[in-house]
Amino acid sequence: MIEKTYQPGEVESRIYAAWEAAGAFRAGRPERAKAEPYCIVIPPPNVTGSLHMGHALNNTLQDILCRFERMRGKDVLWQPGTDHAGIATQAVVERQLAERKEPSSRAMGREAFIKRVWEWKAESGGTIISQLKRLGASCDWSRERFTMDEGLSRAVLKVFVALYREGLIYKDKRLVNWDPKLKTAISDLEVQQVESKGSLWHIKYPVEGSDEFIIVATTRPETMLGDVAVAVHPENEKLKHLIGKHAILPLVGRRIPIIGDDYADPEKGSGAVKITPAHDFNDFEVGRRHDLPLINVFDDEARLTLKDNEPFLKDANPEPALVEAVDGKPREVARKLIVEQLEARGLLDKIEPTSHVVPHGDRSGAVLEPFLTDQWYVDAKTLAEPAMAAVREGKTKFVPQQWEATFFNWMENIQPWCISRQIWWGHQIPAWYGPDGKIFVAESEDDAVADALAHYTDIEEITAEEGHDIAADPERRARFASEYLHRDDDVLDTWFSSALWPFSTLGWPDETPELKRFYPTTALVTGFDIIFFWVARMMMMGLHFKKEAPFHDVYIHALVRDASGAKMSKSKGNVIDPLELIDQFGADALRFTLAAMAAQGRDIKLSSQRVEGYRNFGTKLWNASRFAEMNGCVRSTEFDPHHAKETLNRWIAHETSKTGREVTAAIEAYKFNEAAGALYRFVWNVYCDWYLELIKPVLTGPDSAAKTETRAAAAWALDEILKLLHPFMPFVTEELWKVTAEQGPPRHYMLALDAWPAHDGLDDTVAEGEIGWVVDLITAIRSVRVEMNIPPATMLPLVLANASAETAVRAKHWSDFIRRLARVADISFADAPPQGAVQLVIRGEVAALPLKGVIDLAAERARLAKEMAKADADIARVDGKLGNPNFVSRAPEEVVQEEKEKREEAQARKAKIAEALELLKASA
């Protein structure tokens, strides 16, 4: 028996436990051995993570796909797992050590610290997984992987060694995003750009051999100590005469060339820019084009380092007082001291206030430094070519297709990928250095030793015992490794192991049955922000090592924003916690909300009110199920919708079939909002508001063949609703599936494993024509009542003008329903509409509502005219804003979008008013 109210908190954990106990989500079920495979790999959340709204959207959409395809009979593998999240996890554990006043990571040493991180993972690393289960994620948890587990670590080693030997991994000295607090390179995705107020210092650089100065403007005077050139645009009429001459670097005395380069913008600042290749990414590229030297003036904590800095001192004559004053000082302190020195020497032309973007580390909060350092790199340009070809040839498709342009833009301008990080938690780089700096890259220390022994044939330790094979002596081999080889301390970028995720999780480098069956995977669901960092790199690695793109479809979903359209952030205090919404409204309500709002290419504006609204949708379904149960609507093996006799039952079968096609087509096209919209309309409007309402007289009437069929039809349609709705609202549908199984024939499967509905042969245009006419007529009359402000208690006459015989029969048959549901006093027939009647066209025929004497037509016209004027004024006000370039460029994105939506709402309102005025015009 169905309980009076649905309590998600009491049901969801019980239902999920039942799914797991039944192995409902396991891939490779025996009965599906010959089924078509379907595979999605989860974007692995950080092991430090907690469920946020982005996770909720991403995993809801993946779950809809997996539950849908599982019900379609496919052998579904939704591959779960977590990412070791190198920098984030190390930071969490180091913070924990500090809070507990325990020795720091450096104090305890690498081995002890890594052991401590593994202990932390065992205790706290499963939080995100349990939260995904609360959302309803139907992953095959028996196959859960971790990017640092043994199998994936083996894959990482194999890939690194292979790419190194192919010349696709190498060491180089380049600029990186350097975090001076964490003392490591970080990826672009870990850079947070912060709008900051600062100053623009205009500095006078003396031109050699003249009294002339060339003025450069900078927000970072401290980096001028590393200047190696001044650039002006070759077509800068004011300054191009200086190209080829030299300037003298203030305070340092270094002679630096004045070069011509397009990078210098003649319209910006003074038109001249200082070139500091070791401390600016753009300057680095200018330096490469002009073969300029690199002078690094910072240490790894972003302190000035001038003493004993040979590149800085070469060809320079810095003032001793300057060197003494700023050496070892932090950037901010050195900046102030350098500005004071420039001012004292009359070399500061002016200072202007400015706003500019300053990069910060998202983990440390520190201001980042473009830093010149030796790092390991992947030749991404070479690996990118096959990935771009796969998209061009349609082997991998982006949905929406517009994201292909973003993909190509990134890939065609790709830079070497920095893959080394100066931390301890992660995959340690499998490179060993010999005493002369020779690098030995190998999958194990034993292999590195073997390579080193083959190389160093003249080391005394090796040759001392003639005829004795050191490689076969574990003790001597270990001693050799300890004394002569040093392993690289760095670890790999987390994205390196994540790039192998689609095939490493399936067992590669071993040729496992799972790899053969599920690679390449079917689809990937992810956010646009990691198209380059993850999607592109998975394609590079998959194509290189498996010779096939790792997925056929890449569905890119939008952002979840707050109700006003602002991006969620802790600093704004507008973060919506999905777990709180689940506690309040249930997982199904949150899931359906996200799906219903997931229009392709459009961000989601989320509010708790929306989730509450879809909670009410679940309640509507629950109450409809109770109504059916209380009225004896029980499934029957004798009922076949193809042979239904009653018009209403044939109609609901027709509408069910139509909805099934719409939902199936929408999910296949990744149009989740359209699938959810079709389900909402069918469940709320068609089944609950119309079908159950129209069959009430039959259900409450005397027993008959019609009643027996209608009860079975209502139960059948409810079953089909549960199946169609299950991918979106799995908990409430599974619970109703279980409870309704207490009556009628036994269920063979849990709903999660039951078959997706097939409704071939249920289209019935005759039944749809009849019931659809009734529904359209009542709906149109209700709309007029609302638009004309007609009170509910006022009964209206209805005149069917020049009605066909078919319409006349329908009107007489359904007259009781029409009068009751449309608040109609009587139904009559006439050759033409009466004077002063509002005319409605219902499926090609006219239905008239005489309103003279019912409402004051003149007053109603005046009211509508006033409303029209207000709508026009609202549109004009918004157009004024949107037509103002200053507003569009300066207002936050969400404010501009809100104005656009206000205009859309006003336009829709205007269209409705125009429609009502047209009706009144026709009634004149």
What would your notes on this structure say?
The protein is of the alpha/beta class. The strands form ten sheets. It has a four-stranded antiparallel β-sheet. Helix 1 crosses helix 27 (730-740) and helix 31 (857-882) runs antiparallel to helix 33. The longest helix is centred in the C-terminal third of the chain and has 31 residues, at 893-923.
Number of DSSP helical runs: 33
Give unreliable regions as ranges: none
Number of strands: 29
How far is it from the N-terminal to the C-terminal residue, by CA?
57 Å
Percent of residues in helices:
40-55%
- Measured on Cα atoms, how large is the radius of gyration? 36 Å
**Average pLDDT over all residues:** 93
Q: Please state roughly what percent of the residues sit in beta strands, choosing from under 5%, 5-15%, 15-25%, 25-35%, 35-45% or over 45%.
A: 15-25%
Main sheet specs: 4 strands, antiparallel
Shape: globular
| Secondary-structure content class | alpha/beta
Main sheet: strand order: 6-5-14-16
Secondary structure layout plus pairing:
Blueprint: H1 8-21, E1 37-41, H2 53-71, E2 75-79, E3 81-82, H3 86-99, H4 105-108, H5 110-124, H6 127-135, E4 145-146, H7 150-165, E5 169-179, E6 184-186, E7 191-206, E8 213-218, E9 229-232, E10 246-248, E11 255-260, E12 272-275, H8 281-290, H9 310-313, H10 320-326, H11 331-344, E13 348-361, E14 369-378, H12 380-392, E15 397-399, H13 403-412, E16 417-418, E17 420-421, E18 431-433, E19 439-441, H14 445-455, H15 460-463, H16 474-484, E20 486-487, E21 491-492, H17 494-498, H18 501-504, H19 513-518, E22 521-527, H20 531-546, E23 551-557, E24 560-561, H21 578-585, H22 587-596, E25 604-605, H23 608-630, H24 647-668, H25 672-700, H26 705-725, H27 730-740, H28 765-787, E26 796-801, H29 805-813, H30 815-822, E27 824-830, E28 837-842, E29 845-850, H31 857-882, H32 885-890, H33 893-923
Parallel strand pairs: 1-2, 3-4, 9-11, 15-23, 22-23, 24-25, 26-27
Antiparallel strand pairs: 5-6, 5-14, 7-8, 7-13, 9-12, 10-11, 14-16, 17-21, 18-19, 18-20, 26-29, 28-29
